[in-house]
Structure to design on (288 residues):
């Protein structure tokens, strides 16, 4: 799998740290899209309060990332810089979920798109196809 | 109370502990070696990894009394003569950490991985072997890079 992310951070002072922020953000976004769900029971009790129940991405759930940027100087501060903290988290869930909706052929896919949720979405596309025939 | 005697970073230490004391509590609270972290207490995150007789072990999941007589190495025991261990140096060089909470466990896991699987580690192997170490900040990208570089430097 190949992952490429491009963003505009204005003038980049320390590329190493900026890229690190993007890597971490992408991983958070992928986690949000596929694995991480805070679940409450009907009494309001959080039932995903430990890593036994709340799935954070592991190293083997992710590829390496190809990160690049364009530079448009920010006009509203003297350094021309923009924020980059966890920037990857903005587009990553969208990219992952768009890939899934594209593959299943409809948009009824919940987040996190766990294997069970994707399986249900695939069943629904089969039904939709049948109904259309 | 139970008495335990073990070697920690080359030093023999003895302590009288409540039998339910975890190894990580002995290290952090009795010996004040706070480089070993507790991220979850449920064997998931790997922040507490130390070496027990050369094996990477989650110290939140071992009783101190089980380590009686063992040789324990913590993150504090890696650097020698004021010089960082090659794996620590590789994490520094490759920006393999952000908040640093997972880092002691990552490095202890990585060093044992190299001892077990050698100095030429491909990305796939490193990622699979990191299954037991969680990181919230780095997306693992630079950790994987750091471990590959550190493994080579450990030759
Ligand atoms: S604190 Fe030991 S695995 Fe998380
Ligand atoms: S660097 Fe923050 S958890 Fe890994």
């Amino acid at each position: 799998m190949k992952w490429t992310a491009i963003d505009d951070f204005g003038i980049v002072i320390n590329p190493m740290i900026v890229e690190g922020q993007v890597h971490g953000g992408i991983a958070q976004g992928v986690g949000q899209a596929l694995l991480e769900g805070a679940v409450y029971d009907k009494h309001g009790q959080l039932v995903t309060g430990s890593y036994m129940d709340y799935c954070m991405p592991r190293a083997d759930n992710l590829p390496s990332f190809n990160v690049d940027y364009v530079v448009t100087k920010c006009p509203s501060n003297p350094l021309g810089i923009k924020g980059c903290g966890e920037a990857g988290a903005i587009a990553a869930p969208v990219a992952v979920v768009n890939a899934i909706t594209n593959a299943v052929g409809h948009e009824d896919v919940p987040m996190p798109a766990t294997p069970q949720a994707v399986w249900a979405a695939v069943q629904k596309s089969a039904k939709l196809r049948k109904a259309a025939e | 109370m139970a008495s335990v005697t073990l070697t920690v970073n080359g030093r023999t230490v003895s302590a009288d502990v409540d039998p339910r004391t975890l190894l990580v509590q002995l290290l952090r609270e009795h010996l004040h070696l706070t480089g070993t972290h507790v991220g979850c207490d449920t064997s998931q995150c790997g922040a507490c990894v130390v070496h027990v007789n050369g094996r990477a072990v989650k110290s939140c999941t071992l009783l101190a009394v089980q380590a009686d007589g063992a040789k324990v190495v913590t993150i504090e025991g890696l650097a020698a003569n004021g010089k960082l261990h090659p794996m620590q140096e590789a994490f520094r060089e490759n920006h393999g950490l952000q908040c640093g909470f997972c880092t002691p466990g990552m490095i202890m896991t990585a060093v044992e991985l190299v001892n077990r699987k050698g100095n030429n580690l491909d990305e796939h192997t490193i990622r699979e072997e990191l299954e037991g170490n969680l990181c919230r900040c780095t997306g693992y990208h630079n950790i994987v890079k750091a471990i590959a570089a550190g493994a080579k430097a450990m030759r």
Q: What stands out?
A: Residues B 97-102, 135-138 surround FE2/S2 (inorganic) cluster (ligand 2) (CB under 6 Å). Strands of chain A lie at 3-8, 65-70.
